[in-house]
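User: My collaborator sent over this chain with a note saying "see what the structure looks like." That's all I know about it. Can you take a look?
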Amino acid sequence: MTKLEDLFAAKTTPGARLSWPHVTADDVLWQELIGQLQTGALVLLSLWGEVGENQGIVRAAILDEAQRTGAVIAYACAGGQYPAISRSHPPALRLERAVRDLFGLMPIGLPDTRPWLDHGVWPMRHPLGERGPAHALPPAYPFLTAEGEGLHQIPVGPVHAGVIEPGHFRFTASGETVVRLEQRLGYTHKGTEGLMIGADIERAAKLAGRVSGDSTVAYALAFSQAVEAVLDVDVPAQAVWLRALMAELERLANHLGDIGAICNDAAFALMHAHCAVLRERVLRTAMRCFGHRLMMDRVVPGGVAGDLGAEGRAAINDLIAEIRRAFPNLVELYDNTTSLQDRTVGTGIVDPGLARQFGCGGFIGRAAGRGFDTRHALPYPPYDTLRFEVPVMAEGDVNARVWIRIREVEQSLSLIEQILDQLPGGPVRADLPEPRAGEAVALVEGFRGDVLVWLSLDADGLVRRCHLRDPSWFQWPLLEAAIDGNIVADFPLCNKSFNCSYSGQDL
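Assistant: Without extra context I'll predict from the sequence alone. Here is the result:
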């Protein structure tokens, strides 16, 4: 039995609050980890760093899908260096570049040594590690080249038309056909993980909920679960179910908005208008029930910020009835509009092998054959008692990503109905106990995919370190591959069908 197999064999019992072991790796275990990730036996969930009093540490969260469990492995960086995972496992590349930018920890054998989050305009280098002097002038970013007769480059962004976050896309094209797309992100870097350090739990919870505003419930839930694991908090039953209700409303609003926006980028504005109306109804219902359109700061450590009440139940029941009346007609309209199918079918295909290699979750992964859904694979209450299906398709194109969203809308409607039928009474929030030091990891299913939070609290109950990983880290790179061989004019359609988070990736 290898060290990793022994690690997973010794995991705590299923259902335990801290079922993922946290271990420190020697060189042998770290190299074994790299090998298991390379072969696909394990999935990389995230990678992050920290710098202590004596040396730096890099941590990797990994998932064993077959065993339905994970682990957090720490490696001490002697001399500020560690063996790069990305030299054998490309999904680690951007994370390792970000760790180098933020902490100054150097991956030995890093295939791409360009900065990722650091654009050369920060007042110092390595802001979360051993700080160095700032760049005198922002260095030019060396985009990758492509060779061939008649190739030309098209720079797009970082400022875009309309209301959209900033990101730069550098196309290399032969005529209208894209032969390379390279992304440069980091423009919305907010220093969230730095702001977390030393924050109390209330302040940190607010920061977590603002990593990516359209996923505020998912982030707040993951952060709260991590706090509750460290402090051994029993969340009241009603709060557990209300959290799931808010998570499904968030999923519903985003999927409805995305379906319409994808159709709009294919010049079918009618679907966009009708879906926008339904999305707005979800947001207004959320405001009426929970006091905020996005339900920001409604999920808190220990429970939720308020009860639903009879009026809230009635409002959500009315919402579900309205969507059930209107949505099937929109689905039929999408399915029977040939000009729309011409744009979406066969466009922007994600290779199933890449989806598996990158551990790509959410509708992007499920549209390309990877059926991972945290609510099903690693169920947390109340999803362990609810009935739902995880839709999966193999085509991996824009059309498949639309259909996965359609099926997930249907599943969310059913889940909301089940939650309302079974919603228990009682308190909605538990008081947090006296502070204690500890570490915990939480993984929850947001509308884009799995959101990870790793949290370390000190003995005073303050955040010693918190790492928040958006699913977009493993989805953005697949967009570069999916657009290859498509025409430039199809990029907005492909990009919207991915709908990755800029802010969530940029931290």
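A starting point for your reply to your collaborator: The chain is about 40% helix and 20% strand.
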